[in-house]
Input
Amino acid sequence: MKNKRPKNRSSNVHRYYLSLVVSIYLFSFSNLALAQAWLSNRYAQNCAACHAPGRFNKPLSERRCTLACQGCHVSPNGGGMRSSYGKWTQERWLRTFFVDGLLTHKKTPAKFEEQSYFNSQLALQARKRHSITVAPLDNRPMLITTPDLSIIESKYDRNHEYFDHIEVDERTYKSFIPTGDPYHFEKMFYLSGGADFRYFVLQRINDTPITTQKFRAFPMSADLYLRFRPIPSYLSLVTEARFLNGPSNSQLEKFFTNESRIRSAYVLSDNLPYNSYVMAGLYRPLFGYYTPDHTTLAQTISGLGIRSLFLAASVGASPNVPFINFHLIQPTAGGANIHGFATNLGGRFVTLGASFMFSFWRTNTTTGPTELIKMMYSATGGLQLGPTTLNVDLLHVSQEYTPGFSNGGDVFTLDTQTRFWRENYFLFSGSQSNIARSLLQGKGLEWMFGLKSYLISGLDLELLYINKKDEVSGTESTSNDIQFQIHLFY
Output
């Protein structure tokens, strides 16, 4: 359908590129951007969290709506660059305060009943789930927005959607998608980008054995993303650069020269029937429940850290609720001779924001005549219970160090976020393992609590108290830290 509002389109183009310039600026002055899976649980019932409210449906083979990782991120593995849908969520929902004039701030979509394309008689028929005939709109509607941050989210609940089960033809479907919806941005731009930056302040309260450095303030990591879409609807070429730093280096200028590397570089063909995709290149395949903190007990024992990079080819699909993917892992040129596979099967639901995922990983590392096997599996589940988002994960790891002899154990993780005002959360998580972080005989226990605030769009602040207890071959160690984190992202 032709766009009869060229001035609005031009304005949107200018605003988009201005936002990109600002994101690069934020990147240059200042972690790792792993997927925060709990946000899918949190916003599962809110259609307007991803796009304009009140869409019609499509036949199953043509649907692209999903709560899997690709709902917000370009990569189906999660983390890294955000798509236009992920940026929509950030700009309109992940904020406590609205700052008029800030390029990354957009007004929240008004309720469906207040949109210009809402038709009460048509909606009543749709709500009764009658077979209805809908004529396409002559002009693409404008999106009605509101700066009000105190709106009741239940008004956006998918259980109250009118058109949820009504399927229409392609022309009618497109005509009801208003100007400014991410559906258009995903197809409009050949080039897009994004960035992440994390700065840490750490204060060691006490530990055993005693260390000398108690206070540390340093930039920890930054990622810069670039996506080129030679065929906007179906093909993406993505590269993601990464800058890493340690607690001993607090100088900002040295941060960018301390360690630079490729986070990922891949080709992706998506938007295929049943929301399927194929991709290949350098990246970390999806496995288990990821958190942004690579120092947690589960992340450490899994061995999948911020430097994990594999040459892989993947295929998968996420037709609405379920998702499945398979990853073939091969050795990288000049790197370790690792080959194997990983696979994931799961589902994410609107009801209760529920989710589950089963993951399996098996790789062989060959050094000369020696071949060592690493095998992992994970079971993850999550729910949205009132203001609390809860996820649990059971991870098993088995690693050979000599052929036929392996070390292994289990890690149980509980992760919760409780919203108490706007986008401010009380955090609590705990993990326990029957093996040491190094996979030697021992055990581990850690718990943390604190606060997270999405203060404005593109900025979140986090304050945590962290307690860790580890036992390795009969020797115990403990640490207690206060950690403050500044996270800039776009």
Q: What stands out?
A: The radius of gyration is 23 Å. Confidence is low (pLDDT under 50) at residues 1-34.
